[in-house]
Design goal:
With about 170 residues, the protein is mostly beta strands. The chain is about 10% helix and about 35% strand.
């Protein structure tokens, strides 16, 4: 299992401080220890996924959403349009926060559970320094729907640089 703690992205990719409460919401992005035995890991199927831009997601976060109140408190308009039944499903959101140019994007690749920990495995891209990325503020995010789950979010996000999003149209 790859272990790249989200704080690496914050230090080198985002250069923004994280704010919020620590706990099962997923705002505690300091990582944590990954189980050494992978036998207790359970892959949670991703039922739906949406990526894009949402100006309501101004700060970097990885958050587990289980109630309408949590979804409303997120303040995200595009994410709020995702079809899900919060009585039976959970939403996991990975947002990079406000970025100075286009070319930033993120994807959640898989969700695994071990005990009370939910490992969010994904990738985050930033444009190369000398790229011709549009000078427009962006708010990249990825959200996935999974069967109802509770626990402590542990982000495992790999950093990419100068890559095209995996779902971008090919010429």
């Amino acid at each position: 299992m790859r272990t790249v703690v989200f704080t690496v992205i914050l230090g080198s990719l985002l250069s923004l401080p994280l704010m919020g409460c620590a706990g099962s919401s997923g705002d505690d992005l300091g990582g944590g220890s990954v189980p050494t035995a992978t036998g207790d890991m359970k892959l949670l199927p991703i039922l739906a996924q949406r990526s894009g831009e949402d100006p309501g997601l101004r700060l970097p976060l990885v958050r587990l959403i289980n109630t309408e109140a949590e979804l409303a408190a997120l303040g995200a308009k595009d994410v709020g349009q995702i079809q899900l039944d919060l009585k039976k499903q959970s939403l996991i959101v990975l947002a990079l926060g406000e970025q100075p140019t286009a070319g930033y994007w993120t994807r959640i690749l898989s969700i695994q559970r071990s005990g009370d920990k939910i490992y969010v495995q994904g990738i985050a891209n930033k444009p190369v320094a000398d790229s011709a990325a549009a000078k427009v503020v962006s708010y990249p995010y990825c959200a996935v729907v999974v069967a109802k789950v509770t626990g402590l979010i542990v982000p495992e996000i790999d950093q990419l640089k100068g890559q095209t999003p995996p779902d971008a149209a090919k010429p």
